[in-house]
Specification:
Length: 364
């Protein structure tokens, strides 16, 4: 039986990888008795070539920490499978420890759960995963979509090299959409933190105002606070509070708090204005989370109560929050690959054979 099922998995993975002519597809499984290509995330990465795909299968054990130096595609099995039945045949999730994405690993795609991600590579896509937190450091063109983040997201405009020297870089073109985030989205910038934060041989403070920009944040459900980039836009979110720079576009949000703070970090000392958009821009304030969310499960807790303020509050009449918009958050966070969600066996009249029924589904 185990051999037959392994054969079924192998055929399924070959079909999923057939559209890529030269890249290889590798299986990663650390369960006893399973004949996979690798048992740890780092071993799979080290043996793979840039552009290859790694499939992490169900396991009760972590696949370990991972440091990435090449761009790969990585897929898991989703999360919260115990509370969302019939998404996978096995309700154990595939999980990696901490992932560090080095600058050379451009174009990496991560769709497997992990303890945390620290990224310094451009072009990273993080899609439908559960993670404790994500730190983007000096990277551009990054997308974080349809994820459940138990901590927060940090954006840092300065990157450090191995000699503890600071290298001027910027977080540019960061897209954060349709996520459930239980911590803050915050940015760390040179003008705000000052030279004392960085090593003494990092003489960047004299180079001017260095910070993330072109940050677009929409249709997220955020429990705490968000800081938005100076040229960023922030809309269709449900959020606890917002502190942002002058010049950001802020509209169609539902706030748990009663204040919106706009701060000018150019001034020394800093100046703040409160309730900038209370009377306009279709923002709503003072909406208690208890009157918004159903709270009936880990991620389904963030579905909206009937008649609650975020319904129809977004741009164009869409719902605000993670479940609104054209690409809403998906319960269970299934990666966009086919999945086996049911596996049944039954005996036949032939003693040397067994009937196997495999039910599959696509995940869009």
């Amino acid at each position: 039986m185990k051999t037959q099922f392994t054969t079924i998995l192998t055929i399924l993975f070959l079909l999923m990888g057939s559209s890529t002519l030269f890249a290889k597809v590798w299986r990663v499984n650390n369960r006893d008795g399973v004949n996979a290509d690798f048992t740890t995330a780092q071993a799979a990465h080290d043996a793979a070539s840039a552009g290859d795909t790694l499939y992490f299968e169900h396991s009760a054990s972590s696949y370990g920490d991972l440091t990435m130096t090449k761009g790969l595609k990585m897929f898991g099995t989703g999360f919260f499978l115990q509370v969302h039945p019939e998404l996978q045949y096995n309700d154990d999730a595939a999980t990696i420890g901490n992932i560090v994405v080095r600058p050379t690993a451009t174009g990496t795609q991560i769709s497997v759960n992990c303890s945390g991600i620290t990224d310094s590579a451009d072009g990273l896509s993080i899609f439908r995963i559960r993670s404790t937190g994500i730190q983007i450091t000096g990277a551009s063109n990054v997308q974080i979509s349809e994820c459940y983040i138990n901590g927060g997201i940090g954006l840092d405009a300065i990157i450090r090299n191995g000699d503890n020297l600071c290298i001027l870089n910027k977080c540019i073109n960061i897209l954060i959409r349709n996520n459930i985030i239980n911590g803050p989205i915050s940015q760390r910038e040179l003008a705000l933190w000052g030279p004392q934060y960085y090593p003494t041989n990092c003489n960047l403070y004299s180079q001017g105002y260095i910070k993330p920009y072109s940050v677009v944040v929409y249709n997220n459900s955020i429990r705490t606070t968000l800081q938005c980039g100076i040229t960023g836009s922030f809309y269709n979110n449900i959020v606890g509070a917002l502190a942002t720079d002058a010049g950001s576009q802020v509209n169609n949000n539902v706030f748990n708090g009663t204040n919106y703070t706009r701060t000018s970090f150019f001034n020394n000392p800093q100046s703040s204005e409160i309730n900038i958009f209370t009377a306009g821009n279709d923002n709503q304030f003072g909406k208690e989370f208890a009157t918004i969310f159903t709270c009936s499960g880990p991620d389904s807790c963030y579905t909206l109560l009937a008649g609650s303020a975020p319904i129809g509050a977004g741009t164009g009449g869409t719902d605000a929050g993670a479940f609104g918009g054209i690409s809403p958050y998906k319960l269970g966070m299934q990666p966009v690959i086919p999945a086996i969600y049911k596996l049944a066996t039954e005996p036949t009249n032939n003693a040397n054979s067994i009937k196997i029924t495999v039910s599959t589904r696509t995940n869009n």
